[in-house]
User: Which sequence fits this backbone?
């Protein structure tokens, strides 16, 4: 295996990087961090490997588990790439962001990050203009890396999640809670195993949520009813009740909406909460499909910007870019902005 395509296994030590003069002279422009376990990579990784083998300006590093990403980034930092590309789903991106934030592997100047659409939902990749074939996105990034990245760089705020007073936050860009978290788990456990395309899986999940909500049905083949929770923000405002959808994000777009505009408050964290009532959900769905979500207030739909959020409740789960956390009464999950990073955005 070449010195620009490495794979870290549980029993391996870190490889020596750029030990020869040729490597030092021809420093790779792109470091590609791959998680072979991401859903999209199960079918695409062989193509990714072949592409990297034909492009010596790509330093390809694979990990066996996400808990090896810290060691991977330590090695990648020694290569000093012009761009760091993550080949994995939102959970892989979250693990990389957490390590960059907490590990300090790149000092105060981490390279701009790009994301290939290689997961199930790919919210982060979509927000950065990457969709469709991961190889096509990688080709665009290779072309961009040959010149000045300035026009393609965008700053993105990040979410720092802390629980039980932990000083080491988990870093991400999209959090789902309340009924949304339950629906995400339902899709993961009940729909994805059917082997359907991602778009159809998400559509079936949305239909199941609407059926349960509209008809008040309870059944093992439907998502559960949302648990009550309490959400407070740094503006001394709070929400209490059951919510079909609770989302906190720093992304500019969600799956079906255009640019996400907050109707009240200021701050990089965008909080969207939809009360568990059929009328509230329908108002949100219609506004989203028309691209008008956040353009004006909607009854039962709360959308605001803030710089501090606290979530607590009984048996309440939240999911930050694929990783689940539990909020309890008296032991809230706290969200704050983290140091923003530069990302490479592909043309829409």
Assistant:
């Amino acid at each position: 295996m070449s010195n620009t395509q490495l794979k870290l296994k549980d029993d391996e030590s870190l490889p020596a990087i750029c030990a020869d003069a040729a490597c030092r002279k021809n420093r790779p422009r792109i470091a590609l961090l791959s998680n072979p376990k991401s859903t999209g990579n199960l079918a695409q990784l062989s193509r990714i490997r072949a592409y990297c083998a034909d492009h010596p300006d790509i330093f390809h590093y694979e990990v066996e588990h996400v808990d090896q990403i810290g060691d991977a980034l330590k090695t990648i930092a020694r290569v000093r790439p012009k761009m760091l590309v993550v080949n994995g789903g939102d959970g892989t991106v979250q693990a990389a962001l957490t390590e960059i934030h907490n590990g300090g592997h790149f000092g105060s100047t981490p390279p701009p990050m790009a994301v290939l659409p290689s997961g199930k939902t790919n919210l982060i990749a979509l927000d950065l203009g990457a969709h469709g074939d991961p190889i096509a996105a990688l080709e665009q990034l290779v072309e961009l890396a040959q010149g000045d990245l300035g026009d393609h760089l965008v700053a993105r705020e990040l979410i720092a999640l802390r629980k039980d007073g932990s000083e080491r936050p988990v870093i991400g860009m999209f959090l789902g809670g309340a009924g949304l978290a339950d629906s995400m788990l339902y899709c993961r456990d009940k729909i994805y195993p059917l082997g359907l395309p991602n778009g159809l899986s998400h559509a079936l999940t949305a239909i199941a949520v609407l059926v349960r909500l509209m008809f008040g049905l309870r059944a093992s083949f439907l998502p559960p009813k949302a648990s009550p929770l309490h959400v407070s923000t740094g503006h001394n405002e709070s929400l209490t009740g059951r919510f079909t959808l609770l989302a906190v994000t720093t992304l500019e777009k969600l799956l079906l909406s255009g640019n996400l505009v907050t109707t009240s408050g200021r701050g990089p964290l965008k909080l969207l909460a939809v009360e568990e009532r059929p009328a509230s959900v329908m108002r949100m769905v219609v506004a989203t499909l028309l691209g008008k979500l956040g353009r004006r207030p909607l009854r039962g739909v709360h959308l605001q910007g803030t710089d501090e959020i606290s979530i607590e409740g009984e048996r309440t789960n939240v999911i930050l870019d694929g990783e689940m956390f539990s909020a309890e009464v008296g032991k809230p999950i706290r969200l704050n902005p983290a140091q923003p990073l530069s990302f490479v955005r592909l043309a829409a």
